[in-house]
Amino acid sequence: MTGARTALSALPRAAILRAADSPLLQRLVRRYGMRLGAARFVAGETLDECIRVLRELDEAGFHSNTTLLGEAIPDAEAATEVVAEYEAVLDRIAAERVRANVALKLTHLGLSFDEEIAYTNVERLVAHAGRLGSFIRIDMEQSAHVEGTLRIYERLRAAGHENVGTVLQSYLHRTPADLERLLPLRPNLRIVKGAYLEPAEIALPDKRDVDVAYVRLVQRALRGGAYVAVATHDERIIRHVRAFAEREGIGGDRFELQMLYGVRPALQRELVREGCKVLVATPFGPDWYPYLMRRLAERPANLAFFLRSLVRG
Fold first, then answer.
1. Three-class SS string for 113-174?
2. Known catalytic residue at 139
3. Tens of pLDDT, residues 74-100
4. Band of residue 7 on the pLDDT scale cut at 50, 70, 90
């Protein structure tokens, strides 16, 4: 098993991400993957299945968000259907009284073909969430969509919506400037490292540089008055951020820790026991394959777990 683990660790991240575009592999994994291992990372294919997981997380002391998996919707009609599905998710979360909110991708609402349609759709959802006392996180996607996402976030804030946040990716060269652009809004930001395959002229290729950039972004965002969701499974970075906040006199109401459903659950529980606010990102839906592939690409241990499940099945 050790040799297999070593071989899996050597698999290029790029190869795994490219596999996300393989129709043949997608059909195979979609047929068997949820039963044999994908359910570790995805809270089911239906809202009922997801709500059961959200309730369990709430009872265990966690906050959570959920995402209806899917992206790059092809037309306005399909995007409108997604909006209706998200309204149902928001209504159900409110009815269940679980500590959860929605995170969504703007390409799922039309950004890949019409920015104005995407704005109209997300504004409808943010307003609906506001009436329910809830919050919407706008996820960040490939570099081609960063500028459009930031423009939409800025428009929402200018329109008076406070219950909305977005995401910045530390591996992009442009992100420090993007952070400075947003700080006057006192934004609610999730900081991530970045999970998409980008060329070196757009993104830092070396993990160590990405980690350094990540810590700098978190520190600057906290000093600049943002509320920061520190999204990482790296214990070293988590310890550093907590120590930094203590030194700077930044209270626990100014940041939270975010981790992915199924990734390092023991660490998640430990952090809750230590009094940290921990939010678990808990997606669901039938279109889970691209999400799963990005999770496998991020950590070889995730890929090893998934393939062991396939073999044992």
1. CCHHHHHHHHHHHHHHHHHCCCCEEECCCCHHHHHHHHHHHHHHHHCCCCCEEEEEECCECC
2. yes
3. 899 999 999 999 999 999 999 999 999
4. very low
Residue 288's pLDDT is 78
Confidence (pLDDT) at 37: 58
Domains of the chain with bracketed CATH: 1-42+299-313 (no CATH), 44-287 (3.20.20.220)
Residue 58 appears among annotated catalytic residues: no
Q: How many CB atoms lie within 10 A of CB 118?
A: 27
Q: 64, 106, 69: which is closest to 85 by C-alpha?
A: 69
Residue from 137, 157, 178, 190 carrying the catalytic annotation: 190
Global pTM value = 0.86
The residue from 139, 178, 211, 295 that is catalytic is 139
Rounded to the nearest 10°, the torsion over CA 169, 173, 175, 181 is -160
Local structure of 177: helix, strand or coil: helix
3-state helix, strand, coil in the chain (%, to 5): 60, 15, 30
